[in-house]
Amino acid sequence: MHAGRRIIVAASIAMLLLTVRAAFAAPAAPEEKEKERVLRRLDEAAKSFRSTSADFEFDSVETDPIYEKNVQTGKVYFERQGKAFQTAAHIEKENGKPETKVYGVSGGVFKLFESGNLNQVTTFSKASKIEGYLMLGFGASGKELEEKWEIKYLGAETLDGVKTEKLELVAKDPEVRKNVSKVTAWIDPERAVSLKLILNFSATEYKVCVYFNIKVNQPLPPDAFTLKTDKNTVFVPR
CA 16 to CA 61: how far, in whole Å? Predict the structure, then answer.
């Protein structure tokens, strides 16, 4: 190889190495920095999280083959003591009509209590796998979110006068992704609570969860996690 050509080749290799080194040394994208900032704030807020109560509206929407919307309203409770976690959603109205249902998860067991004429408790004992996902936005630290979700930062947005951080989350567990393709969360990192969640189940089905009148670390009602059964209640294991 001629001396001149060797110099050109050596210079080209040197430039390539500098380019590669610069690429690896490039600072993190602004979105990654912001995501890291939000997750570390959640780490701090989670340390003092004990409980939450809130009013909610759950809108379940299906767009195909025809548009359908089901609206549930009521109160929800979350409580965490160390690794122990429990939650219960008390549905008071469905599509504007009085309804009495309670969804509860505690100790890896999911229960649905339907009172009235049905008066039945359906128990799903294999809920431990999803229990950690139910903590999303309610006491979960940034590290706990990172363990279960691929996270993308979408920016800041103010809801009800509260500055929230908007995150897109895709479950790392493929079994979870079969049921929920992604979640969009509007989180208040100061309190480690969510003001809004959108759960996408498929291209035509999703659920919007809005939480308001949120109270953090205040005493919960004594019956927050109680199913008001009686001697006539039917228990159905699944």
Answer: 52
